[in-house]
Amino acid sequence: MATIKYLLQSKSNHSPIYMRLSISKSKSLKRKTGLFIDHRRWSPSSGLPKQNETSNKALISKLRKLSNVILEKLNDANANGEVVDGNWLVYQIDLYFKRISVNNRSELITDIIQNIVDNAHLRNNAKGGIGLSQSRINSYKRLSELFKEFQGRKHHKVKELNKKVFNEFKKWLMDNQNYSPTYTFKKLSDLKSVCKEARNQGIEISNELDGIKTKQVSAYDDDMDVITLNFEEIEKIEKAKLINEAHVNARKWLILACYTGQRGRDLIDRIRAKNFEKYGEGYIIKIKQQKGNKPVIIPVLPKVKEIYLEGLPYRVSIQKLNKHFKKIGKIAGLNEMVLGRLQDKKTKRGIKKLRPKYKYLSTHIGRRSFASNHYGKIPTPLLMKVTNHKKESTFLSYINQTDDSHIEPFLEFYKSDKDNQHKLKVLKDLKAK
Predict the structure, then answer these.
(1) Contact (Cβ atoms closer than 8 angstroms) between residue 50 and residue 56
(2) Please, what is the Cα angle at 183 between 198 and 359, to 5 degrees?
């Protein structure tokens, strides 16, 4: 006859409770129940919490009910010829506590995030294809790490993620972890997406989910650090004495970035000889940007033309380029102390402080430099055709500028008004005479 006994295997104030299911003299299974107790409140002789403590009564009742259910399930399994092993026992325990549904889909939020990561190659992406990008996968992985740290010993089910939990998670990210509003709301948006995914799988979610607003914070807040290279600094980079061949090659990429305004991936994959076309006495570059899959025509500026005619640089990974750019910047003497935010490798958290400017050099600085250096010199709508920003407000935020187009009309109006008042005064004086 099968029997069940509970036991602890540690002496801590949060010891996991194990179930041992003895099926026969030669076969027994031992698995965690997912319940915890202070070892001082446990009775090894009875295999249950101490019965003389009132606070243990609910836990004792829960364990006894679990035993009855497991023994009933065991009888059914034997009658139906099911395989009874460790996986079977874990499944029955989780099913009893409603950690998973009958169809074996976990209702725990962290399990659903993991399922998204595990099946990333099968998921539809924003470009209309199949498979999530590595950056998107990393974003879900980071969400899982953060939520596990946030919930601690709790194991939140999807249906428990109501407005209160979302607000607690937001407060924890901003107050305890010191994350920026931008990053915080990105994680909240990701979490809401996971809950919607659970709903699509038929898993119960909170009826408050649709009412939870994951406010979209602009990635270009007014206090954001917009770090760029001006023309003088680009010239310093051009004149820097580089010995390493990899650095010479990377310098070409950096200059191309500053004069084409393209993102890192488009820079490496799209700025290629086959995309250059003759245009009058010069050239243009026709590409389709990877973000948004939009076609863009880029004017080939003198510096780009020079590199094109000499020979375009060979391809290098963005990670390597970012390292090379920093070394090139250091050699070029870009040592001005600049306040900015960089991610700490250990904590994966952005830390804002003064650093030499060369430490901020990456493939993205070229795009910002292009936009900033040409702003005010080239009409903004034309610049946006190259950077492929859809809204002028977004473009201006991107380079940390504000729209001042309304200033001149106001000044002109009052200037005209003043002139009119002066003319009226002259006429009155003449009439008086």
Answers:
(1) yes
(2) 135
pLDDT at residue 108 in the model: 87
Per-residue HEC secondary structure of 84-97 comes to: CCHHHHHHHHHHHC
Convert the pLDDT of each residue in 209-232 to its tens digit: 988 887 655 444 434 457 889 999
Query: 185 pLDDT exceeds 60?
Result: yes
Give this prediction's pTM: 0.53
Q: What percent of the chain has pLDDT over 90?
A: 42
| Largest pairwise CA distance in the chain | 127
* Mean pLDDT of the region 271-300: 87
Q: Which H, E and C letters describe the chain, residue by residue?
A: CCEEEEEECCCCCCEEEEEEEECCCCCEEEEEEEEEECHHHEECCCCEECCCCHHHHHHHHHHHHHHHHHHHHHHHHHHHCCCCCHHHHHHHHHHHCCCECCCCCECEHHHHHHHHHHCHHHCECCCCCECCCHHHHHHHHHHHHHHHHHHCCCCCEHHHCCHHHHHHHHHHHHHHCCCCHHHHHHHHHHHHHHHHHHHHCCCCCCCCHHHCCCCCCCCCCCCCCCCCCCHHHHHHHHHCCCCCHHHHHHHHHHHHHHHHCCCHHHHHHHCCHHHEEEECCEEEEEEECCCCCCEEEEECCHHHHHHHHHCCCCCCCHHHHHHHHHHHHHHCCCCCEEEEEEECCCCCCEEEEEEEHHHHCCHHHHHHHHHHHHECCECHHHHHHHHCCCCHHHHHHHCCCCCCCCHHHHHHHHHHHHHHHHHHHHHHHHHHC
Q: How far apart are CA 30 and CA 291, in angstroms?
A: 51
Class of domain 231-398: mainly alpha
Which tokens is 348 given? 């994966």
